[in-house]
Amino acid sequence: MKPATPTAAPVRATTRVKVLPHPDLCPAGTEFDAKAGRKLVDELLEHGVAIEHACEKVCACATCHVHLRSGAEFVAAADEEEEDQLDDAWGLDAQSRLACCVKVKGPELVVELPRYSKNHAREH
Ligand code: FES
Predict the structure, then answer these.
(1) Region 34-43: what's the mean pLDDT?
(2) Does residue 96 line the site of ligand 1, with CB under 6 A?
């Protein structure tokens, strides 16, 4: 007799990403379905949100800073490297994450883009 196959919880293949309006990057806001497991920065770029990513997405610049206004509980917590980079981000708050470090997961993520990136903040 074959052993019973364990029943795993269904794995969600997509996550609804809602991006709040940002005057330069996304004036009307946007929504899209992102593939679970992909970097949030890649999904944003592929869906027309030209977020900065000066270090080419290797957690070394903090220009891809975002605020996860909802859904953060579904994604893995920031590690020490990300926390160190976030210290340099403009407009840091308790919901700050680096979009190149966040792997999309969960039913929905609500993303707010900071008014300025770290690079722009130097000019203001
Ligand atoms: S792109 Fe540089 S830290 Fe995310």
Answers:
(1) 97
(2) no
Q: Which pLDDT score is estimated for 62?
A: 94
State if residue 102 touches ligand 1 by the CB under 6 angstroms criterion: no
Q: Which domain CATH number covers 27?
A: 3.10.20.30
Distance 8 CA to ligand 1 centre (A): 34
Q: Which residue has the tokens 């020490």?
A: 80
Residue 41: how many CA atoms within 13 Å on its side-chain side?
A: 20
Decide the pairing of beta strands 96-98 and 65-70. Answer: antiparallel
Write down the pLDDT at residue 88.
Answer: 87
Tell me whether residue 10 is in a domain. Answer: no
Would 82 be classed as within a structural domain? yes
Lowest mean pLDDT among 4-18, 55-69, 79-93: 4-18
Query: Residue 4: inside a domain, yes or no?
Result: no
Of 6, 1, 5, 82, the C-alpha closest to 41 is 82
Decide whether any atom of ligand 1 lies within 6 Å of the 64 Cβ: yes
Residue 88 lies in a domain: yes
Q: How many domains does the chain have?
A: 1
Residue 64 structural domain: 23-121
65 lines ligand 1 (CB under 6 A): no
Q: Is the pTM of this model over 0.85?
A: yes
